[in-house]
Amino acid sequence: MSGAPDRIDAYVWRISAVVILGSMMSILDTTIVNVALATLGRDLHSPIADIQWVVTGYMLALAAVIPVSGWAARRFGPKRVYLVSLVLFVAGSMLCGLATSTTQLTLFRVIQGLGGGMILPIGQMMMAEAAGPKRMGRVMSIVAVPMMLAPILGPTLGGLIVQNLSWRWIFYVNVPIGIVAVVAGLRILPAGKQAPAGRLDVLGLVLMATGLPLLTYGLAEIGTTGSFTSPKVIGPCVVGVTLVALFAFHALRIRNPLLDLRLYRKPTFSSASIAMFCLGAALFGGMILLPLYWQDVRHQSVVATGLLTAPQGLGMALVMPLAGKLTDRYGGGPLALFGVIVTTIATIPFGFIGAHTPITWLSVAMLVRGMGIGFAFMPAMSAAFAALERSELSDATPQLNVLQRVGGSIGTAVLAVVLQRALVGVHTLAGAADAYGTAFWWSAAITALAIIPCIVLVGAERRAKAAKSQLDGVPAEAVAEAVPA
Fold first, then answer.
1. Where are the domains of the chain?
2. What pLDDT is attached to residue 145?
3. Whole-angstrom distance, CA of residue 310 vs CA of residue 150
4. Segments of the chain with pLDDT less than 70
5. In terms of C-beta distances under 8 Å and separation of at least 24 residues, what long-range contacts does 353-361 make, across chains too?
6. Are 479 and 471 in contact (CB under 8 A)?
7. Which residues contact 80 (CB under 8 A, 6 or more apart)?
8. What CATH fold (topology level) applies to the domain 9-193+258-482?
9. pLDDT per position as a tens digit, 271-286
């Protein structure tokens, strides 16, 4: 009977299934598009620096709308917001399929992202509320299923669609999935309770939704202008950083900010958040390089490219269930640190990539890299959630997703810029392979940055565990006096 409280009830699994369906649709769309970038560039007559905005614009839209999810869930109820997001995402997908230029496609991807941005955080919010802290690791490993399957299914499915139908169908495919997700959500998801939401922090939303895209745009313009000192680079970067700084100052001064930055006073949450930012940059940034390498340097078909990209997702899928169980037992910090180190080491071989590097060797390296990401991503998120009270989940969930998506968009933009600059003047396959190697060295460096916050996370978890042990057995009145209001 002692293990009964930790058993995950059937209703939690049903909620998880609905969340996975919607989340997979949102995440799958990113990986499907990555395989089609070379095709999109040819059909829409756009260079890498321009076509990468099809990915970056989508992730920035996700990051812009995610912060509103906590307020919207309290104001309108999580189920209603989740369903509206699904409908908007499907409508954006239809528009993407109808696009006739890179500008149109990027604009429609933004609309699609505005719908998809709330799907994952609202779903995580409902699952975290249903599961409780003691089962967080196992439940968060279930949330990770879309992240496991999308890198496996997405590239392969995208390759099959592009080769046999048209790139437009990589967006149309969301329509039937979206309809099923909406119907399932209507029938299964709990209505949830509306809570006092207060006024929406409109000023904070404007500052954040303007500052982050400007910063990313400035970084991306390095590839277009070929200079770090161009006004087109410096201007947007300076304005973007200033707006983000103003948002931070504003958020710390008002009672109900768009994002509650006060949560970062908790060492466990702050270190886990920084680690997720770096991992997002490494994961999503690296996902733009591999498909382009397989098609541009090795001249593989889009279907073969999808299959060759799958080992990274397979590695994540193999270790994610184990990572969830180990997180519940040992905490997220040690696992996240181990995963980041493995991911960094497994990225290094790609820095030496050549025009004829054995495919088997690269596939093994990708498999190990995926295993490292699997051991790092969800344990870091679980550690962040476990450090919070239930009342803080509605604020924390969107923040973690914002950091992941912003990290992904900046990582994608930076690595696309590095690749395009390295390809300038290159006319041989060996030279092109060297250019990709340069970009992968940058990817390894970005991944290595996550080691530092993971070390901090391990220490923070140990101190929190020691403090909790000291409080065990202390009378409730003494605990209440010791904990600040």
1. 9-193+258-482, 202-257
2. 60
3. 9
4. 1-9, 30, 128, 130-152, 192-197, 220, 222-228, 386-391, 393-395, 398, 464, 467-485
5. 353/293, 353/433, 353/436, 353/437, 353/440, 354/430, 354/433, 354/434, 354/437, 355/297, 355/298, 355/429, 355/430, 355/432, 355/433, 357/433, 359/298, 359/308
6. yes
7. none
8. Growth Hormone; Chain: A; (1.20.1250)
9. 878 888 888 887 777 7
